[in-house]
Predict the structure.
Amino acid sequence: MKFLTNIIGKDLLRFFIIIIPFFLIYEYFEPAFIKIPVVVNILDFLTLHILNLTSWALSTIFNISNTIENDMVVLPNGQQLQMQFGCSGLQQFILTFFLLVLLPGPWKHKLWFIPVSLIVIHFFNVVRFIGIALQLSHTSNHFHFIHDWVFRPFIYLIIFLVWVAWVELIAKSIKKPPHNG
């Protein structure tokens, strides 16, 4: 119960105070943001990386033949899973970066925790894309449900767990000097 008591309260409030404005600001600026050349290059890199890892996992681990055509994984049953810019994980990277930068805690730990967090989020984003491809390899009947209500919340759960790890394992484990007064 101590864990739940710690997580509920000012830390959770701080979490929502950071992420809600982030989403509002990001949604407003996204159309212009995704046209910036360096952002386009990052999106292209992430897209290609996720497509290649997905294709490899499908063929090597799950024995499902597939091809990559442009920004899509094409499955043997003709289903195509297109990688949209929102699927790249860039928005989640930026959210996590700002969340961790704005949270209290020592920078010496943030300097390693932020990159590790981004790698973790990227890994689970690849898992998400593979999961959607696996579902499509069997049927497309539930694509929108799986995409919108299973895997989208899944990636935000990962971000939440990264935040919990920061608050509970890193930031709170730092010894504070005794308070005199």
Observations:
- The radius of gyration is 19 Å.
